[in-house]
Design goal:
714 residues, six-stranded antiparallel sheet, Immunoglobulin-like, Jelly Rolls, eight-stranded antiparallel sheet, 54 strands, 1% helix, mainly beta, rod-shaped
Length: 714
């Protein structure tokens, strides 16, 4: 595809000096009023640099104006992180401005370029001013998030990791990430490759120049600058000619004569640079014969001033100026190259930004010493110490402590509670500002922390972290409280509730004290139950002494519970020992679960009719073999069976023996049976005594020993 050319030696029009009469003069702002720097991840700025922008031109800057700020971090390297990631740009009212770190990404750099999008802030013409602030955090804080605060695509080893160029250069930005051209931004013709960057090679065909280029789908009217960062490889040898693409737009890859922002080359007598220029349908090309040089990165750009004027720049220095005429109100942005040999262009990013009023590029800035935004503070709590100490608090109850923070420095104090290390402590109130005007020196603010224990523990310790704009950056406040049970049951003598031996169906009542550690009353009605082995033999009744609980246990406190009594009645209903558990859940239900108390009893005494203590026989003749039988009656008055026997003569066996009866191995409830004992002496003895033991099951008096007495006579 051939184009007409008009070759002009660029050396005649390049201006190598910095632009005079700059639009925006940048000077250190007065530090008499500290800005509000928004915290980053809860961390407050340690320093700030105030930069005042003064617009000496006749018209105001537009909204979303991208302002170049040049700095020399090496002068204050001690406050910066190694890669400058601990700084961002803000408006001084706690709002972070979109910014993009373009170059000089080191704390020892002598030339660092930032671009700051001023957002809705505009600078009036005729000497209007605007102050912005670089807020600098601890060197361990990463303020670059790739959203509001970012950097050029090669800032880290991951290409484009923090590149937010599209938020700073809102008109147009691309970093050619990935392996293919972004079709929503660009169209193309000829040969190129994309691999985390754009590479456009020259064509060996065509006379005198081949063509390979990409061009924006969007068009831009006057008042913009189109720029790209490119790397020149294999520069032309001295005497060779570089062709600069003429202005034209593209439609389906064909020439349609529409004006365009185009990329070509210019040289400063040593190095060859890629350059964006505007041209019209008249096709006014510029060309040069650059000398051989090594590879060099350059920012090349062109300003579309108005419908008849363009200005070309290399690294922000004006290099050329052209006049052209066009009837088009908008131009495409074209990146490409025409050449007959040897040159390849590699581009890292491309952008379009607003042309500054008056056509002046921002000048280099000299920054004065940063001002500290650090202040000091003292703290005291409701407990009278710098720590927050809570009284004994019932499980589920809440105790309150308030921390008072006083600004003791000379700058406003900002405080942001970062939370506690234990969820049992929670920040529930905060009058401390995290941004804005801050706490004035000598004034105070408060942070309220509630303690709501969810277990029994002494002590329960935690830490409240307050992020502050102090030299340490944060303050750790110790928290300590004691969690106690919310409801407790206390028997008369400690331990469990113990009933002694009771006769069958003979009830007994003992007191149990209910202790309420909560600060609210607990309803007891319907919440007291018995579980365990013998729950049916126990019941809740009125206490035998003291203050009765009634329907509720009154409110108390963790340190001093309320106390009232209930009665527990035991009516034996089983033989042997019995047990159960008293459960008091309360209403509302206590968080720790029901209060419990174990209950045990002595062995139940069966209600049997005691056999006689002694059975007396008469005198029986040995010579005549006389004998006498008597019955011992056992009556079971319980409702459950008891076992009987084995029974035995334990002494006097020469005189007495068991001779029958109606008792079997068990005796049903409410029944009686007999054990027959016969006295048959075989020797003369007066008295002839003996004993018999009768087993009657689980009766704690079993076995029963009955004395036997009689006389053995001749």
């Amino acid at each position: 595809m051939l184009r007409a050319t008009k070759k002009v030696q660029l050396g005649a029009i390049i201006m190598l000096s910095s632009i005079a009469g700059a639009l925006l003069s940048i000077n250190p702002a007065s530090a008499s009023v500290s800005p509000s720097c928004a915290p980053v991840s809860g961390n407050y700025a340690q320093y700030f640099v105030a930069v005042t922008l003064t617009n000496n031109q006749g018209s105001a800057t537009p909204a979303n104006f991208a302002q170049l700020v040049k700095m020399s971090p090496i002068t204050f390297s001690s406050i910066y992180a190694a890669n400058l990631d601990n700084a961002n740009w803000q408006d001084g009212a706690g709002n972070i401005l979109n910014s993009w770190l373009e170059s000089g990404e080191s704390k020892v750099s002598t030339a660092t370029n930032y671009w700051v999008n001023l957002g809705a802030n505009t600078i009036a013409g005729g000497g209007g001013t605007l102050t912005i602030y670089q807020c600098i955090y601890k060197t361990s804080v990463n303020a670059i998030d790739g959203v509001a605060t970012g950097a050029e695509p090669n800032y880290t080893g991951t290409y484009g990791q923090y590149d937010n160029g599209a938020t700073v250069f809102s008109k147009f930005y691309d970093n050619f990430a990935g392996s293919s051209l972004n079709g929503s931004l660009w169209s193309s013709e000829g040969s190129f490759t994309v691999s985390n960057g754009l590479s456009i090679a020259t064509s060996s065909s065509g006379a005198p120049c081949g063509e390979n280029d990409v061009y924006s789908n969007s068009t831009f009217g006057p008042g913009v600058i189109g720029e790209a960062l490119g790397l020149t490889k294999n520069p032309l040898s001295s005497g060779q000619t570089a062709c600069v693409m003429g202005g034209e737009g593209f439609a389906g890859g064909t020439i349609d004569g529409t004006p365009a922002i185009t990329d070509g080359w210019v040289q400063d007598g040593v190095n060859a640079y890629g350059l964006s220029v505007f041209d019209g349908a008249s096709v006014d090309y510029e060309a040069d014969s650059p000398a051989a040089s090594s590879s060099v990165n350059s920012i090349v750009g062109v300003g579309f001033v108005d419908s008849s004027t363009t200005q070309s720049f290399v690294n922000y220095v004006q290099a050329a100026s052209s006049s052209f005429s066009t009837s088009s109100g908008a131009l495409n942005f074209v990146i490409g190259f025409q050449n007959n040999n040897f040159i390849t262009n590699n581009y890292i990013w491309a952008r379009v930004r607003d042309y500054p009023p008056g056509g002046e590029m921002p000048p280099e800035t000299t920054i004065a010493s940063p001002s500290t935004s650090v202040t000091t503070a003292s703290v005291s709590s409701s407990s009278g110490t710098a720590s927050m100490i809570y009284p004994a608090t019932a499980w589920g109850d809440t105790a309150t402590n308030t921390l008072t923070i006083k600004s003791t420095g000379t700058a406003p104090l900002y405080v942001s509670p970062a939370g506690t290390s234990d969820t049992e402590f929670a920040v529930t109130g905060n009058t401390c500002p995290a941004s804005g005007v801050g706490v004035a020196p000598g004034s105070t603010c408060t942070v309220t922390v509630h303690f709501t224990p969810n277990h029994i523990g002494n002590p329960i310790n935690a830490t409240l972290t307050l992020n502050m704009n102090t030299s340490a950056g944060s303050l750790a406040v110790a928290l300590s409280g004691t969690g106690v049970t919310d409801l407790a049951l206390a028997p008369p003598a400690g331990g469990g509730l113990i009933f002694g031996q009771l006769a069958w169906n003979t009830p007994q009542t003992l007191n149990v004290t209910v202790e309420n550690f909560r600060t609210t009353a607990v309803t007891l009605t319907g919440s007291m139950t018995f579980t365990g082995t013998n729950p049916g033999d126990f019941s809740i009744v009125a206490p035998i002494s003291g203050t009765a609980c009634g329907a509720t246990a009154p409110a108390g406190s963790g340190a001093s519970p309320s106390k009232c009594n209930i009665g527990v009645k035991f009516t034996p209903g089983a033989l042997g020992t019995e047990s159960a558990t008293l459960n008091v859940a309360g209403s509302p239900t206590v968080p720790s679960g029901a209060a419990t108390l174990g209950i045990t009893t002595g062995a139940t005494i069966p209600a049997t009719v005691n056999p006689p203590v002694e059975v007396i026989y008469g005198s029986m003749s040995v010579s005549r073999s006389q004998k006498q039988t008597k019955s011992i009656t056992i009556t079971n008055l319980a409702t459950v069976p008891i076992s009987i026997g084995p029974n035995s003569i334990t002494s006097g066996a020469a005189f007495y023996h068991i001779s029958g009866g109606t008792c079997g191995s068990t005796l049903a409830g409410g029944q009686s049976c007999t054990v027959n004992v016969t006295f048959a002496p075989t020797t003369v003895k007066t008295p002839a005594n003996g004993t018999i033991k009768i087993q009657d099951g689980v009766d704690p008096k079993s076995p029963r020993t009955i004395a036997l007495s009689g006389n053995g006579v001749l």
